[in-house]
Amino acid sequence: MDATNGKFLCFPSSMDVRTRDELDMVDLSAQVEAQVSDTGIQRGTVHLFVAGSTAALTTIEYEPGAVSDLKAAISRLAPADLHYDHDARWGDGNGRSHVRAALLGPSLTVPIQEGQLVLGTWQQIILVELDIRPRNRTIHVTVSGTGSEKRRDQ
Ligand code: ZN
Hints:
Blueprint: H1 3-6, E1 8-18, E2 25-27, H2 29-39, E3 41-50, E4 55-60, H3 64-77, H4 85-90, H5 95-104, E5 107-113, E6 116-117, E7 124-129, E8 136-147
Antiparallel strand pairs: 1-8, 2-7, 3-5, 3-8, 4-7, 5-6
């Protein structure tokens, strides 16, 4: 490792995702992988944060069975047919969305080794839409660590 490759670098960027409906789950793995690869970072982490209080980030085996099971589990966690004070106060109708988002969490950190995301073979990064309507989501992506000085815009 030479001095250049040992320097700690940080690349902030973002990605925009349009969701289709409540409990839409979008596989972001390929996009995150591409953003990491663009930075040239070889060893470090990628941190993802979704701005907004009615969406979440997590990982899952992205196949219809597991996705359907997670949707069912989220629906049991904060059911649609309960009373929510948020709805009573604001009439938003998305009280359950806020509770579900708080429980799942807005961020995720994935290690990078040899320029690759350290994910399991059957582990994908997903955005979970918890609001009751389609939304435009911005995910803030921070890739940091050591590696080449190659930048996405060069
Ligand atoms: Zn609300």
